[in-house]
Specification:
The chain is mainly β and about 350 residues long. The protein contains 1 helix and 27 strands.
């Protein structure tokens, strides 16, 4: 049930000693974050790896010596340049929020009257309120270029708004009875110092209550903390409540060791969601659209990297740094279940 990691590109960046960079991490609790640092040197035996020093992470709790690590080139990128003009943030925007001395990937889920924004972090399933100065638009460093390009994003945004104002949306929603989906990971991190993992806030301000009540026989999608299944969801059926805030579920695509019956498991409510409403894409997907791809009997979150012929697409999966080709029939627009609502983060889609 796992995906194999393959090389997705022949392009390799060239970082020099002293270059300022941002560093990501696959460590549980730090996924989806970027911390500032400096390139110390390139490894002689493996030119694809670099020794870096963090600005705000330390080797131990004394905070006397900055942490140095050897990282793969895919975990490095240059600091993104400043926007040439002020960007108006809005609901649904994919952003990076400055928190605990690092930039964390999330999505704006609410605009407050005082000019602040609520940001939801999928990796930790929490929502935190930030000032506008603590946010920046999320971009991907792809083969030496920032995607989407800074000025191109503004032009696309203006064109999308013009189209939205001139004609009704082409997206049509209908209720779906089908389901398919996958899993994610978490343990303690070795990083110490000022940089800290995202932690649950004491209170979640202005959050609506979840209105969905899970009942016996209900078709749902579930995710777990199992390693190797980050960003994936499985189709399942609610069997019965199994204690406070959890249910016994039966998977639709996973079977037991004997392969004689479908696997059953107790799952916490926070790892269960209703089946997402089906969204029909009339004009196909575009580059940088966020999608769910059906692979190995579940749905994985990815981004359209390239539009191919015959209604096929190359999808990039950040967590495994790989690209896989899919038919359009095996893709759906990615949606997040946030406090009782379905949210489509992709800027190419408008419900």
């Amino acid at each position: 049930m796992s995906k194999s990691k393959t090389s997705s590109s022949s392009w390799l960046p060239q970082f020099n000693p002293g270059d300022r960079v941002e560093i990501s991490s696959d460590e549980p609790g730090f996924r989806g974050s970027w911390f500032a640092g400096t390139v110390i040197r390139r490894e002689a035996k493996n030119p694809n790896r670099y020794v870096v020093e963090y600005d705000k992470l330390y080797e131990d709790e004394s905070g006397e010596k900055l942490l140095q690590e050897t990282v793969d080139w895919v975990e490095l990128r240059p600091p993104p340049p400043a926007e040439k003009k002020k960007v108006q943030l809005k609901f649904g925007d994919e952003v990076e929020a400055f928190h605990s001395d690092g930039w964390w990937e999330g999505a704006i889920t609410a605009e407050h009257a005082d000019g602040k924004f609520a940001v939801f972090f999928r990796s930790s399933k929490e929502q935190i309120v930030f000032e506008e100065k603590e946010l920046r638009l999320r971009r991907e460093w792809v083969e030496g270029k920032w995607e989407p390009p800074f000025e191109q994003r503004q032009r696309e945004k203006e064109r999308s708004q013009e189209k939205a104002d001139s004609r009704p949306s082409k997206l049509v929603k209908r209720e779906s009875s089908s389901v398919n989906n996958a899993k994610s990971q978490g343990t303690n991190s070795t990083k110490v110092g000022k940089g800290e993992k995202l932690s649950e806030p004491e209170a979640k301000p202005n959050l609506p209550e979840e209105v969905v009540k899970f009942t016996q026989g209900m078709q749902v999608e579930v995710t777990t903390d199992d390693e190797g299944f980050k960003g994936a969801w499985f189709a399942a059926t609610i069997i019965e409540p199994s204690g406070e805030d959890q249910f016994l579920i039966e998977y639709k695509t996973l079977t037991n060791d004997d392969d004689t019956e479908f696997l059953r498991e107790e799952i916490r409510t926070c790892h269960i969601r209703p089946c997402p409403p089906e969204t029909i894409i009339v004009d196909g997907f575009k580059v940088m659209d966020e999608v769910d791809a059906y692979y190995n009997e579940c749905w994985w979150v990815g981004v359209i990297a390239k539009v191919l012929i015959n209604c096929k697409y190359m999808v990039y999966f950040k967590d495994t740094d790989e690209k896989i080709t899919f038919k359009q029939a095996d893709l759906r627009p990615h949606q997040d279940w946030l406090y009782g609502k379905w949210v489509v983060p992709s800027k190419a889609l408008k419900q």
